[in-house]
Amino acid sequence: MIPAPFDYRRPGSVAEALELLASPGAALLAGGHSLLPLMKLRVVSPDVLVDVGALAELRYVRLDGDTVEIGALTRFCDLVVDPVIREHAPLLARAASSVGDRQVRHRGTIGGSLAHADPAADVPAAVLACGGVVMVHGPDGARRVHTRDFFLGRCRTALGLGEMIVSVRVPRQTHWGFEKFTRRALEWALVGVAVAGESVVLINMGDRPVRAGVTEAALRQGASIEQAAGLAAWNTDPVDEPHASAGFRQHLARVLTRRALQRAAGRVPGGLS
Amino acid sequence: MARIEDWALITSGGRYVEDVRDPALAGCRYGAFVRSPVAHARITGIDGSACRADVFTAADLDLPPAGRGPVVQPWLARDVVRYVGEPVALVVADDRHRLADAAAVVRVGYEPLEPVIGVEQALAGEVLLFPETGSNVVRVHGTSFDGAGFEGCEVVVTRTIVNQRLAPLPLEVRGAACVWLAGRLVVWLPTQNAHAARDLIAAALGAPVRVITPDVGGAFGAKMGADPEVVVLGWAARRLGRPIRWTETRSENLVAMTHGRGQRQTITIGGRRDGTVLAFRLDAVQDAGAYPRSAAKLLPKFTCLMAAGAYRIPVVEARVRAVLTNTTPVASYRGAGRPEATAAIERAMDLFAARIGMDPVAVRRINFIRSFPYTTPTGACYDSGDYHTALDRVLAAGGYRELRAEQERRRAAGDVVALGLGIGCYVEVTGGGGVGEGARVVVGRGGVATVHTGSSPHGQGLASTLTMLVSHRLGVDQVIVRHGDTDLIARGTGTFGSRSLQYGGSAVSRAVDLVVDRARDRAADMLETAAGDVELTAGVWRVRGAPSSRGLTWAELCSAEELAADVWFDDAEPTYSFGAHLSVVEVDTETGRVVLRRMVAVDDAGRVINPETCVGQRHGGLAQGIAQALFEEVRHHPDGSLVDGCWGVGASELPDFELLDMATPTTRNPLGVKGIGESGTIGSAPAVQNAVIDALSHLGVDHLDMPASPMRVWQAIS
Ligand SMILES: Cc1cc2nc3c(=O)[nH]c(=O)nc-3n(C[C@H](O)[C@H](O)[C@H](O)COP(=O)(O)OP(=O)(O)OC[C@H]3O[C@@H](n4cnc5c(N)ncnc54)[C@H](O)[C@@H]3O)c2cc1C
What's the domain range around B646? Predict the structure, then answer.
């Protein structure tokens, strides 16, 4: 439970962070709630930690016309209470409120969660459902990557060497539903569903957040919620474990999609707490 | 009285072995164990040359074996490893960070052997853990079966069920701090019984040993005595001439601390259609893990002993075969053999009721034991009890009839959330393990009473209870309770098996009696009267019948010389605590998710001395039984590695418990008390399991193994 030796740097600006990130074996440290456990297990052993956790310039939420812009170092706990988020991107507030426990929500950041790209994570699925765009800075300057193209696999993203996320831009969307199935409180999702507008994204049903494309298409063609939800597990490839088989997860995906769609359609009660 | 332990534990976290800052430990080094990543293999070589630290293996140890015969766990694996997590080498470094780096580069070569996983494979005997013994069966306890009891039965139901393996998961993992002082090893060790730990380590090292128990962050039966690691650390501290500390990691704890439960049980119950049970058979196979610990001794014995449960059944046959598998050794875990027996008989009662179409409550009422003492066919002699009243009380408090009506309504309305009611009635032997207990009570200067007890409380609150006992009897304000240090306490047995108040409390009570007798003589001398003429009221000795005379306080009485008494108490017999639990669950039939809505419990442990402590034990016990019923399971892949699982419950998973009081005294010890430490666990697991099955009974489900995970529920109904 003790990581291998590493150097520790604390840049004062994004520019300085990018400079430090250019050195070999460097890794960004934000909230540390994914990276540090992996280091303690010695699954990863970076040579240099570039701690951007305290960079205030990247911790903000603002409304820009019909788009909500969220700084990469905005923490889950900020998303839960921020009035702009609650009004214009309530799905993010709901997803963030379901992450781990209080400590985790006070450390974990939206940028870290996106960059880590765990298919079981809550907020990345919500950002994808909203059609969010990831704003990236790197050695070659700035670029924008739609979340559709951002997740490449289990813990793999479109981020290149030396690049960092500076913010996320999410179109305003108030039509939402969110379901997360856990065995006990404070756990990772066995399966989850995030619905924003017409888009349905499944959590932990493949190697990345998965669009339930067949369900979306059925809805567009006028299928009922029940019919469309019944198609939610098409093209999914969840992990098969002794306590939760792939078949069981696919069943859950159908039930939870129906419930999330019903919530989004205002057919069942349930808002932000 | 509020528990005196809580303030320190809650505000500062207590003083655990990691917190010990004794000067003797200055300059200590740190140890870590290299453990086997494979379940069964021949060791082909160990290479620690890349490691900037001391590395010790079995070849270095010059110690006698831990027991006789071939079936003994070596201190460190020699030639063969037999479970994932078995210690193979000890690495010692100057600081924790270097230690982690060093332990990561020890290379061990393994030549794989086929692993034996699960009791079926163990019984098949195609692969043997110890080929020289010819079998994987290490112990058979109980009777052989003749089947005659079932001949006159109108109905016989038989079923094979699993009481799953669990991990004890104490908040504080294992650890130790060792130092040699003047030819003697001093060990700070979180343990449930310091004296047994001392004797074990001393025998292995051939040297005198002192064991000091700091605060212990949970044990549940898995911190009995000393594990092999502690002996190796003591040996290495001697070899290196330096103190050594060790703390395992959480992941290590999951595979390297003993596990609990782990029985596959075939239950057969027979009787008449009017509800009378005539015969019950429990044929269990206990997974003992790779080396025999208490799962090869105590657990089978307790399971057989408690097979009849709370029922007067003319024929009860019980047999437990303990088998070795290539998994972590199994030992005691809150209940140790008794929860397994209770789950078996309580499931059998429900299966029988379902088969004859009777309410499970009615079947229990027909078959309860109603007169005491009662000796069961497997030899348990129940002292006192009132089983039907216990059940009646939980049913009344829970509103059983109304709940059944609600269940009917919801089923008729096609509610996707099904309601289920479950009953768990239990009897358990308490104080059934270990011999007597030691106590020394001293009243010294200032009238302060000090209690030295051989019990070894580790979270239960026994110090509070003993303080109450002593301050009440002596009328002193200040009582200090000391325990767990083999230098302070001459003889001790420890805290396990719900024994501490019965034995430890009775010992203290006897010692207090002796102190009072001696004090009376001294008071009589000082007051210049006869011993028969002085009396003790509210902490003051006075001449009898002269309430306003100048009396002697304990401080005055003991100002020149303390008063003390030593006792070894062993003239008590085990007692049989009992109770009834009613569980109410809701099951989402779409997702399989079970939510526990209510838990109503009577736990009768005879006379209650400290209600707070008693309630605390019931709360923790209930939580652990509920966790077994709904959440926890240690599973192995066929290769013997651990399946990622689900550990423990928190407050979010639990309702407010509805606890009812009932106290049926016993005459088997001077205090009239029975054990309470394991009751909640033993009753609640079957109550919750039965409730889940009851919720699904209209869907054709009559059994579900624990834990009732969402997938298991879904599979049962789809
Ligand atoms: C006990 C516990 C429970 C949890 N439960 C949940 C849960 O229920 N649901 C859930 O979704 N998550 C859960 N998490 C994970 C949590 O959400 C993590 O905090 C989050 O995934 C990572 O965010 P972070 O800021 O902590 O990132 P870090 O751990 O600091 O970094 C994670 C990775 O992202 C990289 N990184 C960080 N910031 C940036 C950036 N701006 N640009 C580029 N790369 C970056 C790092 O280099 C690293 O590779 C849990 C974590 C813990 C410890």
Answer: 260-432+574-717
